[in-house]
């Protein structure tokens, strides 16, 4: 049984195979699947199934767990969420160009299509870090046109070609943007991986913002590879 504090907190999960200690969910639990397709976004109820998963060719993957859900939703499923603040039903999706990739030096405009619409931007920039080993500090900045906030700072390194910057893990991207908590302000699911072995997904909610910020960390799903 999960501790009481975890029952009150928002939990974040993805389908797939993971180390056993990375998955707190148990079979039979009811979660909400954030589904995103051409019709828009919605939180849909699903049932979690957790099974043992110990691939024969991965001896360093002890007590693994395989997470699946019913219904599956296939490619439209963005993430799995659970918490008392989230409700089943349609979810407002931000309007933006592209597929969520974040390119260095480029600003991504995002609009919540409310009445009136609310406009935001995400910008990723990189500057040389203050370390002995050559590296770059790459903050991801969220702005509403009046206020700006560093959501996360990626670390990057010089690439093989001149003027090229390489990230140790997957290139930065956001998996989803919209109004998940229903307060009329922007929420984000962002890949915050800063290493080359695994993947980190972070949920930022406007309702979790503190000290005048635009958003605060509501949940994270942190994984390590084999």
Question: Which features does this protein show?
Answer:
226 residues, mainly beta, 11-stranded antiparallel beta sheet, 6-stranded antiparallel beta sheet, 1 helix, globular, disordered N terminus
Helical fraction: under 10%
How many beta-strand segments? 17
* Mean pLDDT rating: 88
Uncertain residue ranges? 1-8
Number of helices: 1
> What structural category characterises the helix and strand content?
mainly beta
Order of helices and strands: HEEEEEEEEEEEEEEEEE
Structural summary, described in words:
The chain is mostly beta strands and 226 residues long. The chain has one helix at 4-8; strands at 11-13, 16-18, 30-37, 40-52, 65-70, 77-82, 89-93, 107-112, 118-124, 127-128, 136-143, 148-158, 165-166, 173-179, 187-191, 198-205, 216-224. The strands form two sheets. Strands 1, 2, 3, 4, 5, 6, 7, 14, 15, 16 and 17 form an eleven-stranded antiparallel sheet that branches. The protein is globular and about 50 Å long.
């Amino acid at each position: 049984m999960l501790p009481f504090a975890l029952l009150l907190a928002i939990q974040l999960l993805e389908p797939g195979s993971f180390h056993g200690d990375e998955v707190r969910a148990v079979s039979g639990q009811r979660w909400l699947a954030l589904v995103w397709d051409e019709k828009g976004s919605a939180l849909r109820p699903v049932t979690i199934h957790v099974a043992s998963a110990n691939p024969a060719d991965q001896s360093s993957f002890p007590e693994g767990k395989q997470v699946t859900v019913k219904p599956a939703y296939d490619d439209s499923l963005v993430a799995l969420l659970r918490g008392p603040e989230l409700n089943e039903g349609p979810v407002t999706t931000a309007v933006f160009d592209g597929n969520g990739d974040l390119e260095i030096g480029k600003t991504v405009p995002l609009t919540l299509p409310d009445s009136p619409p609310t406009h935001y931007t995400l910008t990723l920039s990189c500057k040389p870090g203050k370390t002995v080993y050559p590296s770059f500090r790459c903050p991801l900045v969220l702005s509403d046109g009046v206020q700006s906030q560093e959501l996360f700072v990626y670390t990057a390194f010089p690439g093989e070609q001149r003027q090229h910057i390489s990230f140790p893990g997957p290139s930065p991207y956001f998996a989803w943007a919209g109004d998940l908590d229903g307060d009329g302000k922007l929420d984000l699911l962002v890949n915050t991986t800063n290493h080359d072995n695994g993947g980190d997904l972070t949920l930022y909610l406007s309702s979790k913002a503190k000290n005048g910020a635009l958003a605060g960390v509501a949940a994270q799903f942190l994984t390590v590879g084999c």
